[in-house]
Amino acid sequence: MSALAFDTVGHVYEGVDREVRALEGLDLGVETGEPVSVIGPSGCGKSTMLLLAAGMLSPTTGSVLVNGEPVDGPRRTTALILQEYGLLPWKTVGHNAALGLEVRGVPAAERRALTARSLAQVGLVEFADAYPGELSGGMRQRLAVARALALDADLLLMDEPLSALDALTREDLQDLLLELWRRRGHTAVLVTHSIEEAVFLGRRVVVLSPRPGRVAEVVDNPEMGEPGFRQSPEFYARCSQLRAVLAEEGAVGRLAAEVMPR
Ligand code: ADP
Ligand code: MG
């Protein structure tokens, strides 16, 4: 049984005078403990996919399952990490890290213990009483990761979490995400625009078609997570392969952009 499954999923956004078909016929299974990267053209429904998995949207057609059960709302141990950090500037680092637990009604004592541990895991313990505005971009993103860790999430959904960071900070955070996955063994879905990031952090890389998004290709990446992978010939070969697949997809699909007048 897959930890996360999209079964012929379609999603249509209903606007005032038009509808947007974001996803159509999306089929994908992610195994328990498997890290998967998702890459595809802008507007092809990647964020929609994650919102469906997080239970923040319902599919128009088909079904989304977590551990075999249809997703019918947010779940205690599913965490969603966004690019814009989602931090509250008027709350301390410690409080921000505890937000997910607070929303889920976890008692204060337990919250304190869990957030202390998660801040330690991302190296922010001594900043617990600081405010997000006092942190660098990399540290703010660490805090967003800490919030997810505090939930002890078994399903980690990440929507381009590192795109706002400079290259070095970004690699640093990629190493952190890899290390956390090694330790926790959670199921992970990472949406990214970066070919290198997709290959570094995905045991499989899922390529989506232009909107309406569906799985265009899946690139297996069995060496992911091995020591020294980033510097290996396999890493470069896989990046080239993925680049070729994306070029092909971009060329075929442009015309499929769907804005249907009613
Ligand atoms: P991606 O993350 O791949 O860039 P999204 O999932 O954000 O794509 O969006 C897919 C498509 O659905 C886009 O065309 C986008 O404009 C549209 N869309 C996203 N959210 C909404 C919304 N709330 N209302 C209407 N259209 C939306
Ligand atoms: Mg998006």
Structure description:
This protein has 262 residues and is α/β, with parallel strands linked by helices. Helices cover 35% and strands 25% of the residues. The protein is built from 7 helices and 11 strands. The protein has helices at 46-53, 93-103, 108-121, 137-150, 167-184, 195-201, 233-253; strands at 4-14, 18-30, 35-39, 61-66, 69-70, 78-82, 155-159, 187-191, 204-208, 215-220, 259-261. The strands form 2 sheets. Strands 6-7-8-3-9-10 form a 6-stranded mixed sheet, sandwiched between helices. Strand 7, helix 5 (167-184) and strand 8 (187-191) form a beta-alpha-beta unit. The longest helix is centred in the C-terminal third of the chain and has 21 residues, at 233-253. Mean pLDDT is 91; it is low at 251-262. The site of adenosine-5'-diphosphate has 12 residues, from strand 2 and helix 1.
Sequence-ordered SSE layout with sheet pairings:
Blueprint: E1 4-14, E2 18-30, E3 35-39, H1 46-53, E4 61-66, E5 69-70, E6 78-82, H2 93-103, H3 108-121, H4 137-150, E7 155-159, H5 167-184, E8 187-191, H6 195-201, E9 204-208, E10 215-220, H7 233-253, E11 259-261
Parallel strand pairs: 3-8, 3-9, 6-7, 7-8
Antiparallel strand pairs: 1-2, 1-4, 2-11, 4-5, 9-10
Helix pairs in contact: 2-3, 2-4, 3-4, 4-5, 6-7
Bound molecules: adenosine-5'-diphosphate and magnesium ion.
Residues 46-47, 159 line the site of magnesium ion (MG).
